[in-house]
Structures are given as structure tokens and as C-alpha cells.
Amino acid sequence: KHLSNLGQVVIVTEGDRHFQTIKIKSSGIWNLVAGNVEIPLKDKIFHLPKFLKKYPSDLYYFIEDKPEVLKKIHDLYKDKQSFSANKIKTIHVCQGHYSPICDLGIFDITVKSLQELLEVKL
Fold first, then answer.
1. C-alpha angle 40/41/47, rounded to 5°?
2. Alpha-carbon distance 96 to 94, whole Å?
3. 35-91 pLDDT, tens digit each
4. Could you tell me which of 102, 17, 12, 103 has the C-alpha nearest to residue 61?
5. What ranges in the chain are assigned the alpha helix state H?
6. Are the CB atoms for 120 and 4 separated by under 8 Å?
7. Alpha-carbon distance 122 to 106, whole Å?
8. Which of 79, 83, 66 is nearest to 13 (CA)?
9. Among positive and negative, which fits the CA dihedral 52, 57, 60, 62?
């Protein structure tokens, strides 16, 4: 809900569309993001160009707990003329089994939990 106050929020998750849809709807997140949910079967990074075109913006924040996904996003767009480094920002959420590698220092913002996003000034 907080992020929706800052701009359009889109959930991009991969996996079984039926299961993911049930999970996102039952959590209440589906309604909070006005149904802006994309669920490719696999490799959400491959589908990002399509999603960026569908949801145009001057600035994108990618929030993710998997550092390798954020690294791929950074590498994919760092040299593209149409998507400068200033247009793509990465937020690493250090939680779960990825928390031991939180101090990589390669992301624009690092938070220790989703709750901490409430305090981040974007």
C-alpha cells in the first residue's frame, strides 16, 4: 500500500500461474496493486522488456530478495541507450536464506526487511 502511494506498482513473479495467482490474491496484494501482476512461467528477466513497455515510467525500482536477479537486471540495462543507469534502480531486500549475502554493496538501496521499505525515501 505504501509503495502504491509513490507510483504504479507491478508484481512480477515467476512460476505456476494458478498457484501464484491464488497466493497473491489471498494475501490481498493483488487488489493493492490494482491487478498489475505479471506471472511468466519462468525467467522473469527474459520478459522484462515486454513488462517495461506495458508499464512505461521515467524511473523503475526493482525490489527483490534474490541478489542474482537484481544483478541480471543491472547487467541487462546498464549499457542500453534507451534505459540509462539513472532509469533503473535496484533495491535488495535481505531476508530469508539470502540474508547472509546482504553486504554486497552493489545495489542502489539495501534493506533488511520489507517493513524497512516504509522508511526509505525514493
1. 35
2. 7
3. 999 999 888 999 988 998 999 998 899 999 888 888 888 888 776 655 555 688 889
4. 12
5. 17-27, 29-32, 44-54, 67-77
6. no
7. 17
8. 66
9. negative
